[in-house]
Design a protein that fits this description.
Largest sheet: 7 strands, antiparallel
Radius of gyration: 22 Å
Strand content: 25-35%
Shape: globular
Number of strands: 16
Structural class: alpha+beta
Order of helices and strands: HEEEEEEEEEEEEEEEEH
Number of helices: 2
Length: about 260
């Protein structure tokens, strides 16, 4: 084997053992609410959410008002909310219905709330975006959410001292968690009950959320690290790749010496 080939193999080995720039995480589909407002099975047969083969998105249908489904992960539980930068995906050209939106469960260890974003948030800078709503929370002051200042709600938007907040306004001890569970005070029937801190939601009570939608290539950027949705079981372990590369490099070296 030539020195050039050995050099290329060495570069391959280094690339395999170095930390990856992107981490693959698992999302799961779940049901939230039926047309009649109930949140337990049996779920409406005309409501559906099916994960795609790559595990990086879903096809969902909520043809009637009130129906709601979700796609969530616990991989971010314990992450600071103010560390999130963006979320993005692709969608099929023929997709109908409204844009899926985010529901993120957060806590400071005592209090809890859902921070939500709607409309065209894909690819926007979460640190400066000032359209964050709050829907579910335990009763009482919301000041615990902020690093400083007084929290309030205006048209469902969370505000700090009368101005809409950005994620950068949240306190460092406000972290993602799986939610307080069904029946908790302040939690309505529209909240994700799947036990995930980070959720992409489709469906609602409003008619503009009724329809079908498909997403793929779901990714989240948090603390300048990229997280890709996907089937974790289909991704080779770095240690396995490294062992294979080492064996291959050793074989090549023996060929070169001989």
């Amino acid at each position: 084997m030539s020195k050039t080939k050995l050099y290329c193999l060495a570069l391959l080995l280094v690339s395999l053992v170095m930390p990856a720039t992107a981490t693959v995480i698992d999302f799961e589909t779940f049901y939230i609410r039926n047309n009649d407002g109930t949140i337990t099975a049996p779920f409406d047969v005309d409501m559906s959410i099916v994960e795609n083969a790559a595990g990086d998105g879903f096809s969902a249908a909520t043809p009637r008002s009130g129906q709601k489904v979700g796609y969530g992960t616990s991989a971010f539980n314990g992450f600071q909310l103010n560390m999130f930068n963006s979320a993005n995906w692709t969608t099929t050209p023929g997709a109908t219905g409204a844009h899926p939106y985010l529901n993120i469960w957060v806590t400071d260890g005592t209090n809890y709330a859902i921070i939500s974003s709607e409309n065209t948030y894909m690819g926007t800078d979460f640190q400066t975006r000032n359209e964050w709503k709050i829907f579910e929370y335990n009763p009482g002051s919301l000041d615990w959410l902020l690093g400083s200042g007084t929290a309030s709600i205006n048209s469902q938007y969370l505000q700090k001292d009368g101005a809409n907040v950005t994620l950068a306004d949240f306190a460092n001890n406000v972290v993602l968690f799986s939610g307080p569970g069904v029946g908790a005070s302040g939690v309505g029937t529209g909240a994700p009950q799947g036990g995930f801190g980070f959720n992409v939601i489709f469906g609602d009570t409003k008619s503009n959320f009724i329809g079908e939608y498909d997403i793929a290539d779901l990714s989240v950027n948090a603390n300048d690290n990229l997280y890709l949705a996907g089937n974790i079981r289909e991704v080779p372990e770095p240690s396995t790749l490294s062992i294979f590369a080492l064996a291959f490099l050793g074989w090549g070296y023996r060929r070169f010496k001989s």
